[in-house]
Amino acid sequence: MNTSKVWYITGPSQGLGLTLVKKLLAAGYRVAATSRNAQMLKNAVGLVDSERWLPLSVDPGNGDCIEESVRQTVEAFGRIDVVVNNAGHGMAGKLEETEDQKIRDIIDVNLVAAIAVVKAVLPVLRKQGEGYIINIGGVAGFVGAPGWPVYSATKAALAAFSEVLALDVAESGIRVTYLAMNGRQTGDPEKAAEIFVALAQRADPPLHLFLGADAYSRASKKLAEMSAELEKWKELTIGADLDAPLGSLADFSS
């Protein structure tokens, strides 16, 4: 296992992010992690060799602050190999009852900040000619979760961003994975952290990865439903082409 890699992780103050940081440091990796409060992050992680551990205070809504954290990481460790966009939060509720500011806030945290991190780190990865980006989403970004419309939208947008990003950076030796989990299910963060480490060792990580049996089941069902729907409406779909005959629209009205 190559423990010389440098990891840059956002949102590691608790849960999976914190477990990942601890596992990486215990294994000998060099880790930079960003949080709104670096001191709280230090307390959560405990005493670690400062030559391998760089906790940073970062406002995820401030692009300049994100860029500075990337600069500090490269200054401290010389490079960045793995980026984990883990910061984010959920928001449930009826759309018409949700305050506009709360909608903007979750979009900023779950999507805009993640894009800002990638934007800041790409010049480093391109110069190196290699790197790996893991964008943490939710299965709701693919399947959709009733009662979670805005959250689902942010994760769906992050998935689309990851897909196009992967196409744009492949020739630069940079790999991308959109990793989706069901945040409401009981899972083992230790196992998830081990999966992250294993993915970073591969030359061919997946573009999409659903973690957990529930996430797999929901994604499989969605794919089957989409395939069936695509075939059901195939005639109407291809009928929109300029050179294709379109049958009576009355045929589709019942």
For the record, what CATH class of the largest domain applies?
A: Alpha Beta
- Euclidean distance between termini CA atoms: 60 Å
Strand order of the largest sheet: 3-2-1-4-5-6-7
* Count of extended strands: 7
Q: Can you identify the CATH superfamily of the largest domain?
A: NAD(P)-binding Rossmann-like Domain
List low-confidence stretches: none
Question: Helical element count?
Answer: 8
Class by SSE composition = alpha/beta
Largest sheet: 7 strands, parallel
Using the coordinates shown, work out and report the CATH topology of the largest domain: Rossmann fold
User: How much strand content do the residues show?
Assistant: 15-25%
Short recap of the structure:
The chain has about 250 residues and is α/β, with parallel strands linked by helices. It is built from 8 helices and 7 strands.
Question: Top keywords for this entry?
Answer:
Rossmann fold; 8 helices; 7-stranded parallel sheet; 254 residues; 49% helix; alpha/beta
Structure write-up:
It is a single chain. The protein has eight helices and seven strands; from the N terminus they run βαβαβαβαβαβαβαα. The N and C termini lie far apart (60 Å). The protein has helices at residues 15-27, 38-45, 63-77, 100-128, 149-169, 189-201, 213-232, 234-238; strands at residues 6-10, 30-35, 53-57, 82-85, 131-138, 174-181, 208-211. It has two domains: 6-211, NAD(P)-binding Rossmann-like Domain (Rossmann fold, 3-Layer(aba) Sandwich), CATH 3.40.50.720; 218-254. It has 254 residues and is α/β, with parallel strands linked by helices. It has a seven-stranded parallel β-sheet with strand order 3-2-1-4-5-6-7, with helices on both faces. The model has no long low-confidence stretch (mean pLDDT 89). α1 crosses α6 (189-201) and α4 (100-128) packs parallel to α5 (149-169).
